[in-house]
Amino acid sequence: xxxxxxxxxxxxxxxxxxxxxxxxxxxxxxxxxxxxxxxxxxxxxxxxxxxxxxxxxxxxxxxxxxxxxxxxxxxxxxxxxxxxxxxxxxxxxxx
Amino acid sequence: xxxxxxxxxxxxxxxxxxxxxxxxxxxxxxxxxxxxxxxxxxxxxxxxxxxxxxxxxxxxxxxxxxxxxxxxxxxxxxxxxxxxxxxxxxxxxxxxxxxxxxxxxxxxxxxxxxxxxxxxxxxxxxxxxxxxxxxxxxxxxxxxxxxxxxxxxxxxxxxxxxxxxxxxxxxxxxxxxxxxxxxxxxxxxxxxxxxxxxxxxxxxxxxxxxxxxxxxxxxxxxxxxxxxxxxxxxxxxxxxxxxxxxxxxxxxxxxxxxxxxxxxxxxxxxxxxxxxxxxxxxxxxxxxxxxxxxxxxxxxxxxxxxxxxxxxxxxxxxxxxxxxxxxxxxxxxxxxxxxxxxxxxxxxxxxxxxxxxxxxxxxxxxxxxxxxxxxxxxxxxxxxxxxxxxxxxxxxxxxxxxxxxxxxxxxxxxxxxxxxxxxxxxxxxxxxxxxxxxxxxxxxxxxxxxxxxxxxxxxxxxxxxxxxxxxxxxxxxxxxxxxxxx
Lengths: 95, 486
Prior knowledge:
- The complex is a heterodimer of chains A (95) and B (486).
- In chain A, 35% of the residues lie in helices and 4% in strands.
- Chain A has three helices and two strands.
- The mean pLDDT of chain A is 91.
- Chain A has a domain at 5-43.
- Chain A starts with a helix and ends in a 7-residue tail after the last strand.
- Chain A has helices at 5-14, 21-38, 73-77; strands spanning 83-84, 87-88.
- Chain A is mostly helical.
- Chain B has a domain at 4-250: Amidase signature (AS) domain (Amidase signature (AS) enzymes).
- Chain B has helices at 9-17, 23-36, 48-63, 105-112, 155-162, 179-185, 219-229, 273-288, 304-319, 338-349, 352-365, 370-391, 417-421, 428-433, 462-475; strands at 43-45, 74-78, 116-121, 169-173, 188-191, 211-216, 259-263, 292-296, 397-401, 437-444, 450-457.
- The relative contact order of chain B is 0.14.
- At the A-B interface, α1 and α2 of A face α9, α10, α11, α12 and α13 of B.
């Protein structure tokens, strides 16, 4: 299997990353090298093997649906690129 | 003892307890050494006033008789752990100047034990890399040879401890990021069982693999600190619910009768003869100490790299989607609309390697490819983990090389991502299985560069592994070798 320029453009858009025209061919070549490495696992028969999502198995713990965080609004907003009146600012979405 | 910066943590702890040295004097000693060796580029953020205030608080605790064994000992943190008092960047432009509103659990626990923070250590961007060349803040140099990489992603941690500019450093390991840099710089690197230390406040790369650990000068030093940094944390959904343990408890257990598994797959083509010679000599040392070697096979271990480069990028593409220029991190200066702002902020803020992994991860998780890649990789991952489970029915520890070669030169692999990925051939299988493993110095290879011996144990058998490593270090002196000028 080899990726095409169109695949790269599609996944770059899904990942919200821009790839310039100059970068496109090198990126494609590198991704195809990586997938050539990945393809080696396809030779192994894994029929009936349960996928392992987590090294220690079992379900992940869930906590009570309760508020556990104190009010950290000010501390959280301190790192915001833009904020106003306690809210994160983004460019206008609805005209 | 030649100088304080060559002392073990145990020795420093006793000096502090007897008030023969103050925590402040110790902090000043290391701050001076950090400044004198600034050319290594190991540190990304140093704030002497914060460090000295913590040291004075430790001295007050010692004076009040409220100190523990770690109180007043200096430590430096990999810049993957968020800290309230130092910037936390993960080695990325994306997080330049980011000040976390909270401390990572690991940082919090070590601070509660009275350890004094020296600063934040350089690393590959978002812990993705094997040479530290992926940091947005420049290469860290290897104290043994400035042409050589210090390993990655915990290259700042390994270089700082090797140069004795920090007596101990935290680090993180996703596919080898503690063990490989430890091997490349001749220090001890310990990755505990997945889920034993908390991931809370560790800037996430691949959540089913990310594990906090330590880089130290010896197994004994690591055993002393590991207990304080691990333990159940309700804020981490994969944190293991087990009581705390004393990792020093098997340091004095003799190696006699220990069954050391030697997987043939770790000695195949690709392993350089200088590394093999040093590792074989270390195995012979274990035999001389009374251990028996058990030949074994991990038939699926070689598929570790393909599996890892599906699982880790998949999880990374999901974790790094949080960097959108809205709530924190870099926001592009010019953009057309919200969608464009997100895209431009990510494009400008993220480096080449995170972008590559995000693209791979996005592809393997996308519609039509999920079963063929992501689920397939998770199935092979189970087979690799089962190989280890079977192996540990016949041995107590597994031993082998950490890397195929000694530290390579800057630039050797930087332009070829897949060549770089192969650096982690021997460390990735243990990461996928979630077992504890470590690297200890076992000699020198080409160009006088250090070689590491990897020890692996079954889940939660850290104490046995550290004990065997300590017994080896009592019988050898590789871990006491200091690079020239340090």
